[in-house]
Each structure stands twice: as structure tokens, then as C-alpha cells.
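Lecture notes, unit on protein representations.

Consider one protein chain, 382 amino acids long.
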Amino acid sequence: MEIKKSLITLCIITCAVFFVSCKSAKSSEGSKKTEALEVLNKANSYWQTNNKAERANAFWHPAAYHTGNMAAYEITKNEAYKQYSEIWAEKNKWTGAKSNDRSGWKYSYGESDDYVLFGDWQICFQVYIDLYNLDKVKDEQKVARAKEVMKYQMSTSKDDYWWWADGLYMVMPVMTKMYKLTGDQQYLDKLYEYFSFARNLMYDTDSHLFFRDAKYVYPKHKTKDGLKDFWARGNGWVFAGLAKVLSDLPENNLHRAEYIQIYKDMAQALAASQQEEGFWTRSLLDPNHAPGYETSGTAFFVYGYLWGVNNGFLDKKTYASVIDKSWEYLTKTALQPDGKVGYVQPIGERADQHKNVGPDTTADFGVGAFLLAASEMTKYKD
């Protein structure tokens, strides 16, 4: 009888412990989601309050913000967020670079309206397509320029459109979004053709990281300590870009396994270079080359890791500590009390380009990256 009572008591205690454990786990999961929504709204409200949508053009950095804003809208359904992007898009007439003279369209590097084929003027198409897809009654004006420009580009014999790492975020997701919009297989074929050029030019198969462009390929270019110089934000663009592509790429795509492998290899390489405080220094393998906090690259990495775990591409146990530490950095160091996203390296192209990156150093593209990370964190089950 005593043994029976003891077994019953043990069973009751075990069940109680299990119940409390489950309740605690659900509470932890809920608090993480609540925190993510809070910091998302705090950062986005600060940005939109202090920056009028109609003042920004359709070049890469405002457009990068809007890719994050659209992710924030997807999570919150806050109509003010959607309206902010609509105002920006309408102000820019749903175009990137505005030249209509196809004979003069360029793509190497340029900020004027004749650089229609330059990827920095094409990232805006991601946002326009997202807004179009939200319409109950479709407004073809929203995607007309995207269709015109990208279809023309694919008719050319060139394959070197993406010659810098950033370009992989700017345009790879445009190609998959255009495929989903039109059903035209050529978008996926050209996606791989252009990506192959970029991979062969910038991807280091030993380190599994991307050089920013041909100027920074080792050993022609080295850090101060003679190491390979992999710029954090440049790799952030690629890592996040691959996540976005895999979101839309058909399961039966011939090259899907290759995109996944590079994405996974990057995830492993990046984890090894994370700093103890959760951020990544601007030169990934040589912290001494450009020391200190940096948010834009870190936020893109956080987004990439969270997306991978949330969608079954990355193992949660392997990357949970990476995610936890980097989220701690984003919310406790990068995000300022007033909602400003700080420690964002200004516009540039190399790790050691700026000396004073501090809590007040912010930028539209950095906020966009932060919003992507926070949006994905709301889906994360820790």
C-alpha cells in the first residue's frame, strides 16, 4: 500500500513539474514574440515619425528600408506601415531609374536615371510587387515598369549584372518574385545565370563567404593583418538575399540544392565569426581591421538565421545560441531608448571605411534590416 501511495505521489509530482515546464516554455515563447513585436513597432514608429516617405527616392537604400517595412506590415497588419510604402512608391511613380531611352540604359555603376539596368535601381521592384500582391483589385501600373525593365534585361546577352555582393539582395528576390507574378521560366534561368557570374567572381569556396566585389578578392586585397577581408554588410546582403530567394523558389528548381548549400555553408561560416557580445565586426575574419559594434550586417545575419530555422533549413539546436546572442545585441545595444536603430555603418563599400560608428549612427537600410530580423523573430519558437 505504501509503495502504491508513493508511486501515485511521484506520478502527481511528475505531472505537475511537466505542466509547469510546459507553461513556462509557452510563457517564454510568448514573451519573446511580444518583445519582438514591441521592438519592431518601436523602431519602425521612430523611423516613420522622423522621415517622411515622400522625400525618399527609389534608390537602393530607401528601397531596402521598404523591404523591411513590408515584412513589418505582414506581421502587424498595421495599415500605416503599408500606406507609408504606398506613398513612397507613388511618389516615385512605381519606377526605379526613369529613362525611357533603351539605347542608353546602363548598369555598371551610376545614380542617374539612365542606369535603369543597375541593380541598385531595381530593388524597389520587390516592394512594388509586394504591394501589388496585396491589392484586391490589381493595379497593373504598380508592376508595369518592373516587367518592362526586367524583361528587357533578360533579352540582352550580358550575364555580369551582379558584380558586387549587395546586388544579390537587390535583385535576386526580384527575379523570383517576377517568376511568381508572371510564371515566366526565363526569370529563374537568368537568376541562375547571373548568380553564377557573381559566385564565380566573389565567392571564396574555402571560407564560404563573399568578397564585396573583384577589388577585394584575396590576395590582391588584404586586411591590415594580411587576412582575407570579408565585409559584414556585404555578406549580410547575400545571406538575406538567399533566404528571400528560397522563400519563392519552386521546390523542383534544378539549382535549388546549390542555393541551399551555399546558404547553409555561409550560416556555418558566419557562426564561427560571431563576437561574444552577439554582433559581427565589419571585417568578419579580422576584428582588428575595423573593430566595434555594427548593426546592419548583424541584423541581416539575424534575419537569415531566423528564417532558416523557422523554415526548416537550419538546425535550431545548432544555431539557437547564435540567434539568442545576436538578438540580445540588437535589442539591448543597437536599439536606443527612443527607438533609433544605432551603430549602423554608413553607406560605403568596405569594412574600414568609417571610424566613428556609434549609438546615433543610423540609416534607412539598417532599419530595414532590423525590421526583417524582428519580423522573423515573431515566428521563432525558442
